[in-house]
UniProtKB/TrEMBL annotation:
Its EC number is 3.1.1.5. PANTHER family: PHOSPHOLIPASE-RELATED. The keyword Lipid biosynthesis does not apply. Keywords: Hydrolase. It comes from Sphingomonas pseudosanguinis. GO terms for molecular function: phosphatidylcholine lysophospholipase activity. This is Lysophospholipase. Residues 42-293 form the Serine aminopeptidase S33 domain. It comes from the Bacteria. It is an enzyme of class 3 (hydrolase).
Length: 312
């Protein structure tokens, strides 16, 4: 592991004393794991939604930064991952056959959370969370004062081109929807996974740190059904004409070298919704907020400037 200052490791690998975990039940009774960290002198509130297979703990360093700047932060693990249960017989496979269920969860949570306090309310979504945040807003499920999308999943990097890949995914999604697209417990390719996510090895290893202490939170590959559902949801969103009528202030951060989601598809969407766009080059991988400091601090500076405008 790379060396890191003790203070940085403490932020990333120690649960903050003033934050709390609780449970939230969706309207159908599904139990979700919820996180809240209140700012001492809040200027507003921010709901942070992670990507596929992520957990709340991966973003404690980001949360600390936001709270220090006066934003009370809330998050919840999506249904089917983290501490919010599983949708597959194999707890290591991330399944989900219909993203509408996740949008409904966000709709219900947002309604309750928005009613808990006054002041500016911002929605921030990373990767899959960015896709779901934008879809929820387009569908009227959430009405934030501002939206931040970090490497949003508005297109997938597919190995055989869009046509053939979609055909394979559709076939496998129908034949074996809950089966992982790779072996759930295989360890090969971890170096590739690290490079796909972040150049910062220490921050990448934070994930293993938390899983060693809470193995029940770990999740492996997506299922074929999840990938098929993701393509359907992306296709539905980018063809939704309501995108062009969006007026909510939006900031979008993209990594041009992203190997997981398609930054060009996201940039086209940014143009349609009038988003403020910040792009990163080969120095940045998918997890911009967990990258090496030159990238991470630039991303946070863009978010800070945007939030300062919202808090005025």
């Amino acid at each position: 592991m790379t060396d890191a200052p003790a203070s940085a490791l403490a932020l990333r690998r120690r649960f903050p004393a003033s934050a709390r975990l609780s449970r939230w039940a969706a309207p159908d009774g599904w139990s979700h794991r919820r996180f809240d960290w209140a700012a001492v002198r809040p200027v507003g509130r921010l709901l942070f939604q992670t990507g596929r297979a992520d957990i709340i703990e991966k973003y404690l360093e980001v949360f600390a930064h936001l709270v220090e700047r006066g934003w009370s932060v809330t998050a919840f693990d999506w249904r089917g991952q983290g501490g919010s249960g599983r949708l597959s017989p194999d707890p290591h496979v991330g399944h989900g056959g219909d993203f509408s269920i996740l949008v409904d969860d966000l709709r219900a949570f947002w309604a309750e959370w928005r009613g808990e306090a006054d002041g500016p309310a911002v929605l921030l979504g990373h990767s899959m969370g960015g896709h779901l945040a934008l879809r929820a807003m387009v569908e009227g499920a959430v009405v934030p004062d501002a939206l931040i999308l970090v490497a949003p999943m508005l297109g997938l990097r597919l190995p055989f081109g869009p046509g053939l890949s979609a055909a394979i995914i559709g076939c496998m999604g129908s034949a074996c929807p809950t089966r992982g697209i790779w072996r759930a417990r295989e360890s090969a390719g971890m170096h590739t996974r690290q490079r796909n996510l972040t150049h910062d090895v220490g921050r990448y290893e934070d994930e293993a740190f938390w899983y060693a202490r809470h193995p029940e939170l770990a999740l492996g590959p997506p299922s074929w059904g999840w990938v098929a559902a993701a393509l359907r949801s992306i296709g539905g969103l980018i063809t939704d004409t309501r995108l062009d009528a969006m007026t909510v202030p939006t900031l979008m951060l993209l990594a041009d070298a992203d190997r997981l989601v398609d930054p060009d598809a996201a940039a086209r969407t940014a143009a349609r919704i009038g988003a403020r766009l910040v792009r990163f080059g080969p120095e940045a991988a998918h997890e911009l907020l967990r990258e090496a400091d030159p990238v991470r601090l630039r991303a946070l500076a863009a978010i800070d400037a945007f939030l300062d405008e919202i808090a005025r």
